[in-house]
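re: ur question from yesterday

yeah so i grabbed the chain u mentioned. its 162 aa long if i counted rite. heres the sequnce exactly as i have it in my notes:
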Amino acid sequence: MPVNRVYKDRVRAGMHFGHDKAHNTGIAAYTSLKGLTAALTGTATPSATEAEIVTGGQTIIITLTGSTWVAAGATFNAQRQAIIDGLTSAQSEATGWNAVVRDVMAVTAVVRTSSTVVTVTTPAAATYAITADETVTVTVPLAAIDLATSDVVAGSFLIVNA
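ran it thru and got these structure tokens back, copy pasting raw so excuse formatting
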């Protein structure tokens, strides 16, 4: 796995320095990854119907290549809400994905099934109702991935208005 040696300033968020600049307090060495990707599969992809979202039980499977999820247990559990927050609809209907599914989803819906795979299972959403197709983009937060230096877009899926 090719890597670049860089340093992240823990005091000034977002500041990164080259390998010879790590002499200041608060700067920690870490390794960033080239070629980190996330792929999207599951029963909700490439599309699900409005009725399937109402019923619940659809899966959104996120598979990393080039890195792993943060350690299982408390470290990963602390990232589950951020993973849910990364499931964002391009639309903003009052009874659509963001309001009725994502914003009420329990963190227990997010399961680290292996070091490279996370499965999100949609809850039943009886009040989910859309007037047009809805596109949901899955963005994995950098804090949920070992050695990541930015969020990773896994892709999107379509919810078909029916």
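noticed a couple things. Residues 50-55 form the longest helix (6 residues). also Residues 1-32 have pLDDT under 50 and may be disordered.
anyway ttyl
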